[in-house]
Structure formats: C-alpha cells, structure tokens
Predict the 3D structure of the following.
Amino acid sequence: MFYQHQQTPSAPVLCSSPSPSLPANPNPRDISRAAELPRMLPASHPLLYACTFRDSSIVAELAHDPDAGGAGTDDLPALAAALAASAPPHHQYVTHSAAGRAHALLLAPPLALAAVSRAPQLPASHLLLFLRRLRCLPEFRMRDEMERLALRLPFPDEGALAREAADVAAAEAQAEEATRREAELARGTPKRDRRARGGAGRAWRRQLWLIILADLVILGILFAAWLAVCRGFSCIGR
C-alpha cells in the first residue's frame, strides 16, 4: 500500500482551505448527480471511474459502460466520495494505491476531483495529471471534456509524462491568472487599468502645461518686438 500527500504551500496554486464537506459515511444513494447520465468508457480502459464533486453533488462523472463488461465498479462513486471526505485538511492532493487499484484526489475548493484506475496499467501519477488538466477547465466544460482527456491515458513513456506535466503546469498558471483577473473585475476596476488611467491623466496635464508655456513664450517674443519697434512705450502716447 502506498500513500502520498502533498501539503498546500504557503502561496497555493489551487487551494489553501480544508477538504470539501462530504458525507462521513458516503453511499451512492447519498450523492446527488447532475441530470445527465455519466460519460462511459470502454471496459478495456484502465481508468475505472472519475468524477468532480461540488460539496456532495457530482457535477461531472466518467465510468465504465456496464453493458460492455464494466461490472464490479458499482462501489466506485462511494469510494471516491470516501476518499474526498477522509482527505487531510490543507492538502492539495492525495494519491493511494491498494488492492490492484490506484486512487487520486485533487482538492480545489469548492471542487474535489477524484479518479480510480487499474494499477499498474494506469499509475496514480498519471491520474493526478489527468485531474490537474481537468481542473484547468471551466466547470461547465468538465463533463464534455472528461472522456476526451481520459482516452489519452495512460501516457506511453516517461517523455510523454514529462511533456504533459509541463503542459499542465502552464495551463494551471494561465487558469490562475484568469482567476486573478476575474477577482479584480469583481472588486472593481483592475489595478492595471487604474494605473493606465492615472498615466493618461498625467500626460494630459503635462501637454496642457507645455501649451501654456509655448503661448507665454510667443507672447513674450511679440511683446519684445513691439517694444523694439516703438522704442519703449512711446507708441502709447501717439
């Protein structure tokens, strides 16, 4: 049996709060699902089950097709819920391998993403990359994209695994930046826009002062020419 926990760093990328609140003793009947049926994988695929929780509701789900030989997986929704409910607080992910199965959990409150696979055909490290890639998507796209991402598993070699890890890290950085921008827009005018407007105001005032100074210089030249022509103020008395 193998456990791996990753504690959330002080400046987290995905989460920094305790694991989502899920039933203490999960049961498939206690888990509310979206109206759509789960996406189905062929029975030969090593990914047995994957889902995305929001609290105790499943918003996206991928399972084996029972009509294509996907029997013996009825316990997986409850197993995934139990994995999420028992995750240690302030951890970003948990991986676990036992009894020929690999499990992975990614915590990104208010979401929790879980996956179960046949080990060693599909190791927990591959599962975790799959969940991280899925987490970078908007929630409304997860259900439609879950099957496509799963069919890329397992990665054929260490090189492909390393390339996927680099791509996922870049996607996470982009998703984090998008989240930051959305938060700024929700709070009001973004700081960058405020700085741009402040710079535009300063440039406008600088141009106004330059115009005033140019006018004063021109008026001074004209006044000096008038004094030269009139030899002082003698033109005033004529």
